[in-house]
Each structure stands twice: as C-alpha cells, then as structure tokens.
Amino acid sequence: MSTLQIRDLRASVAGTQILHGVDLTIGSGEVHVVMGPNGAGKSTLSSVVMGKPGYEVLGGSVTLDGTDLLALPAWQRAQAGLHLVMQYPSEVPGVSLDHVMHEALTARGRATEGLDELLEAEAARIGFAPELLHRALNVDLSGGEKKRNETLQLAVLQPKFAILDELDSGLDIDALRDCARRVEALTNDTGMGALVITHYNRLLEALRADVIHILVKGRIVASGGPELADQLERDGYAAYVPVAEDEPATSGSLDDLFAL
Amino acid sequence: MPVFSPDAVRASAPPDLDRRLAAAERAAAAAMPSAEEEVWRYSRIGELDLESFVPGRARTTVDAPTGVQVAHGGELGERIDDGDAVDLFHELNRAFMDAVVLSVPRGRVVEQPVVVTHRIDAAGTAVFPRLIIDAAEDSELTVVEQFVSPDGLVALVVPRLEVDVAPAARLKYLGVNMLGSSTWSIAHQRALGARDSTTLLATVALGGDYARVRTEARVTGQGASTRQIALYYADDTQMHDFRTLQDHAAPRTHSDLLFKGAVQDHAKSVYTGLIKIRHDAKGSQAFQTNRNLTLSSGAWAESVPNLDIETNDVKCSHASTVGPIDEEQRFYLESRGIPPEIAERLVVLGFFDEVLEQLPVGPLAAQLREQVGAKLRRRAS
C-alpha cells in the first residue's frame, strides 16, 4: 500500500502564483479526479508534481511513501514510482518507443527480457498499431495514437501513481474508451493510484472515480464522491467561483498557455 | 624558393607537367584568401600558414568492384578540367594533385560501393587528392571517400571532387572526414547532373581541426535532381565549415538539402547555403534545411541560408535552426525515469538518425553512429 501525499502545495509560473495551497492524499488503487475551470491550475499541479522545468515551488510538500519528491529531479521522481501522462506528448525525432521503454526499464534496474512481446501484447490490448512501436515517439501520430502510446507506456512501466493530464483531450471516443479501460485495469490489477485531471465526465464512464476534487484558483474548494462530477456537468462551476472577484484578464488562459 | 612554387612541381617530375606548371604559376600569382571575402566569411583561413607545409602525398587506396574502371595520375591526359578555377586552393590542387578517376560505363549498374581511402601520416605535409567520378548514361554507382589521419598530426588536406552524372545515371557519393584533431582540410566539390540524372552527395564530418567543405551541385539537364545531406559534429576546439550551392540551370529540376550538425565544448560550425534558380529553370523545386544543436554553452554555430531566384513558377523553401537540446524532448524522456545523460544521448542520436538512415552505405552508418555516441560521452560537462 503506497501513498502520494500533496500538502499545502504552492507554486508559481513566470512570477505569477498559480497554486495557493493544494492538499491531496491518494492511496494505492484509488482514482482521484481533479476538475475545475480554465486557469484553475490543473496542468500546473501535474507539472509541478512531476518536476517539469519552468515552475517555481513556493512552499508545501509532495511525498511518495515518505520520500520527498520535490527534492528530486523528474527522472528520479519517475524512478520513485510517479508517472505523468502528458496532455501534449512531445515529439522526439529519431527516438523510438521501444528504445525508450528499454532505457526506462534498464535505468530502473528492471529486466528487459520479453519486452518486445510485452509491447506487442499491450499494443494489441489498447489498439495501438504495432509498427508504431518502432517509430519515433509521437512523430506524425494522431491525437488518439499519442494518447494510446502514453497509456501503453503506463502499462509497461507500471508506476505506483500516475498523473493523467487531460488524457481525454484530442482523441476520439473509441480511443478514449480504450485508454480509460486500460487505466482502470491497472488500478485494479497493479494497485496503481491515479490523479486524473479532466474537464469531462466522459472519461469517468470507463474509469471509475473514487473522489472528485474541484480546483478553483489554485485551491481545492470541494471534494466528494462521483456524484459531484454529475452535479458539475449539470450546474457548472458557478457555485464554486466567487462572483465578487473578477479574474484578471490573463489568468483565464494561463493554464493553456503554459500547457503548450 | 617558395614551397608551392612551379619549381616545386618540377622537382617532383609528375606526368602532365606543363599544365601543372601553369596552375602553379597561377597559384603563385593568386592572393591568399581572407575572411574579409564573403565566401570565406566566418572561416579560420586567417590562421593558415601555407608556407609551414611542404607538398606531400596521401597514401590512397581504391577498392573497386567489377564494372568500375579506375585510372590513376598519369593516365589522365585531357580529362582534367583546368577551367573554372575558384581560388588558390583549386590551383594548388591542380598543380600538386594525386588524381583518381572512377568511371562506370553506360547502362552498368554497380551494386557494391567503391571505397577510396586517403591516409595522411607525414607531419607537416600538404596533400592534394582529386577524385573524378564519371557516371555514364543510365549507369548506377556508389562511392565512399574517406579521409584519415592520426590525432595530433599537423597536416593540410586539400581535396577536390568532380562528379559528372550523365543522363539518367544514378550516383551516390559519401565523403567521410575521420581526420585527426590537428589536421586541416579545405575541400571543394562540384557535381554536374545531366537530364533525368539523380545525384546524392553525402558528407559526414567528425574529425579535423578546421575542416571546410564547399559544394556546388549543379543540375544542367531537365528533370535532373540532386540531394545533399550532411552530419557534422565538432567538439573540443574543432571547427566545421560548410558552404553549399544548389544551382538550377535547367527546367523542372529538383534539389534537396538536409544538413544537421552539433557543436560542443568550444567547437564551432558554420553553414552557409545558397539556392540559385537560373532564368531557364522554370518549374524547378529546391529545398534546404539546416539544423544545429549547441550542446555546450561555450560552443558556437551559425547558419546562413540564402535564395537567389531569377524566374517565376518555382517552389523553394529553406529552414534553419540553431539551439540547445529541446527542453520538452528532454523532459519527456526524463519523466519516463531516464537519467539526463542518457536522455541527451537519445535526443542527439535521434537528431542525427534522420541523416544516418539516408547514408548510402548501411554498415558504415552503424559505425558512424557509434562514433557519434563516443563523441557525446567525451563532452566536458
């Protein structure tokens, strides 16, 4: 049983504070969903927890079974058991998926025998064309292929915790179902915990959420069961966004800007 | 007497003496180029003390499969083109050259590559290899030319390549610079492509102290195409200098260029490329891409693309970039648990793979990939 614990996490991008104290505790096998309006800090949260350059941590802590993740570079956070499924996976010309998985397992001191067979099997399971295993990462892939690729890596590396940053953006309904089912199976079979960032309920049809959190202006303002997502679908975020306070003109799109 | 004088030519009593003497006379009268001239801009030509070298010879071997005619020095007769002198180094090459001529007859397809290797092993010498390739009509040929010297050997190589690709012939050439860290190279290449011919000019430059390759690829017949590719990677205080011309002199011709380089430590590189579409070359297409990775803060790369288009109805584009390893690519790999030095190696090898996979000689590409990897590991952090 593992625990990913985020405590009072505060962070800024380019001098603007985005996260104002986020608290989340995720256990093995649990699926926590973070929803929120644009600019709430959802993508910033995932980037800061994974250790993407360009973000400044102002305070708070992120620990995985007591290990201080914020003190580690991204690659060591990954080796500690964290994985980020990116909203916009980078193209890496000339570097193939199978090669990267080989290096990623080797760097963890894990065996690579049978990797080719595993990749083939996972590709088949998730509807990823097997020839793409040997092609450059994400180069010339469709939105759906990119997200299947990301999900496949999750299945090969089997992290303790996965952050899914808008797994549901840029892919069609079939790909979404395939990816969500695979993640759901990993939470059941390997006890992977998941922090799922999304705008839409559709993802949650195949991926069963345990807790829904609502993130507004860099703080979690409400948490509840799956019914909270249904309520948001119906009523929107109006109840959670303070009316009196006008958002500064830039902050609404900040998330999207930096996510690119 | 000046070292590269007509008397020096006479002293070596080569065949073809009169014309060599004439070239030596012209060389004696020619000025030493300087970086003030546009064509030598950014170069290290000002550091070259020609008089500190003496004329010498490389040990040249030619490994040619059946079907290729190989001629050396004395048998050349009238085949050497004396016109079109470009500079002092051209004249010096004409005066002191060791020439090899490769010819493939009409209609002949030669599957195996010809391998020409020049080894330079005498310190203080300047050597002048010339390689002439004649691909007759509808023939097919692949040639690899390698330049090798030991590390620390102070020497100067002035190679010249002349390629003549007859109608519908297919020629692939790969030049490999594996020179030692103290050897200079000032190379000149010229390729002429006749109607419906296809020419590939590939360069891999890993060695040398200062190594320059100037290439003119001219398509002279309708439907001819040329492709130029290069991989260059300089470390320590090396400098690689490329100057390319894609010259379209006939209608519906095609040229494409992909040069990818990296610099690390205090190394430098320069790429200057011109696409020239002459008045008659309607319906032509020309593309040029130069990408450079700067792997250390003390390294420097420059990229200067140019277009000179004299007619309408053409399709041209050029792209050039200079910069460090892409942060997003690095983070993507690191977020998979791959340590930074391995992530960088993957990105750099991936960057070069686009060129390596287009090299005409597969087994050599694997060996060159190894050398690129070794160079990356030597990077001072």
UniProtKB/TrEMBL annotation, chain A:
Residues 4-242 form the ABC transporter domain. Pfam families: ABC_tran (PF00005). InterPro entries: AAA+_ATPase, ABC_transporter-like_ATP-bd, FeS-cluster_ATPase_SufC, P-loop_NTPase. PROSITE patterns: ABC_TRANSPORTER_2 (PS50893). SMART domains: AAA (SM00382). Keywords: ATP-binding, Nucleotide-binding. GO terms for molecular function: ATP binding; ATP hydrolysis activity. Gene3D superfamilies: P-loop containing nucleotide triphosphate hydrolases. Coiled coil: none annotated. This is Unannotated protein. It comes from freshwater metagenome.
From TrEMBL, chain B:
Residues 119-351 form the SUF system FeS cluster assembly SufBD core domain. Transmembrane segments: none annotated. GO terms for biological process: iron-sulfur cluster assembly. SUPFAM superfamilies: Stabilizer of iron transporter SufD (SSF101960). It comes from freshwater metagenome. Coiled coil: none annotated. This is Unannotated protein. Signal peptide: none annotated.
